[in-house]
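Re-run requested by the PI after the first attempt was lost when the workstation crashed. Everything re-entered from the original request form. Ligand of interest: flavin-adenine dinucleotide.
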Amino acid sequence: MQTDPELREEMVATVRKFVARDVIPVASDLEHADAYPAEIVAAMADLGLFGITIPQEYGGLGLDLLTYVGVIEELSYGWMSLSGVLNTHTMCATLIATFGTTEQKERWLPQMVSGARRGALSLSEPDAGTDTRNISCRAVRDGDEWVVTGTKAWVTNGERAGLVALAALVVGNVLGDIHSDSLDDKLIAISCAVGVLVLGVIATRSAASEVERVTAARAGATASTPLRVVCLLIGYVTVILGALDVIDVPLGHLLVGGAVTGVIIGIAAQQALGNLFAGLVLLLSRPYVPGERILIRSGALGGPLEGMVTSVGLLYTTLRGNDGIIINIPNAGLLAAAVGPAPPEVAEEDAEEAVV
Ligand SMILES: Cc1cc2nc3c(=O)[nH]c(=O)nc-3n(C[C@H](O)[C@H](O)[C@H](O)COP(=O)(O)OP(=O)(O)OC[C@H]3O[C@@H](n4cnc5c(N)ncnc54)[C@H](O)[C@@H]3O)c2cc1C
């Protein structure tokens, strides 16, 4: 809201008088002594300058930017350094008033109005001044806290401030903020989570179909279909965890729950899992392919088995024996057996001739 021009002029005139009476006579001495103007700053606080633009609901004067500019002109005329003291405080307060949560505004702004708690702005770095896009300071969220790593420079009010507005690059995958007071932040977080879900499901399905296509050509449908299911499962779990992470659901709890469930399922499904992993190993090492005649030597499987591999599954490999009987051999048993090419089948007439 615009300040009444009369009030603006009155405020600027008050500061002009203050500068003429209390600042100009001592500014040069203080500057050369490199001394902090504690008394002048206290007088600025008494004039209400630290709350000049802070909204009235938090105890500030709530004056407009034009009034503020007039005040800064007067202070700078007397001693340039004073404008830095007020400007960085006001920038910090403006950031809180504009982007802060309700709790932050109610907690900090009333203290900043009086100057009891002063603000600072920490933007510049040794390698980033005007080019603020080159700042390298990083902020990473850690639960309810932010961990800031970097080096800052030239922080006016730095030693006397009780609040510092610091610019850092936010690193991480938390987009928006599901815990924020702002509906926009919540919506951004939810939209991103939905985006991760939709795109993740599409990507998972495409990848699983491709794996199935490639595997079907190498090992037949019995192997490719379960492998597709495994790919889909891994993909969906990853996508769901990613989406939950975006909306800041503590994955630690989920992972502990998942690990316990995994152990229980692992114990209950030992046999099936053994076959599944053996199937994956056999699929990669390929000691035989469908259509090949093989000889299996294994006591555990009940003696040597000979026949043609008809399909290679993730749990079982199917063999058609010389007598035409089909048997499904568990992959774990096959992985533990000696496997090699079977001797060529001898036709019945040839066999009879050999006997004669
Ligand atoms: C007394 C004092 C107090 C300060 N207080 C604070 C503070 O409280 N908080 C804070 O964050 N920082 C503070 N600073 C840092 C100040 O903001 C930086 O010094 C300023 O941003 C300039 O950066 P630099 O010194 O790295 O100069 P550079 O960025 O290297 O610039 C050097 C010169 O090049 C010019 N220039 C740069 N880029 C371009 C371009 N693209 N086109 C044309 N010209 C260009 C600039 O105008 C300048 O004249 C303070 C500095 C001083 C001197």
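Saved to the shared folder this time. The longest strand covers residues 305-312.
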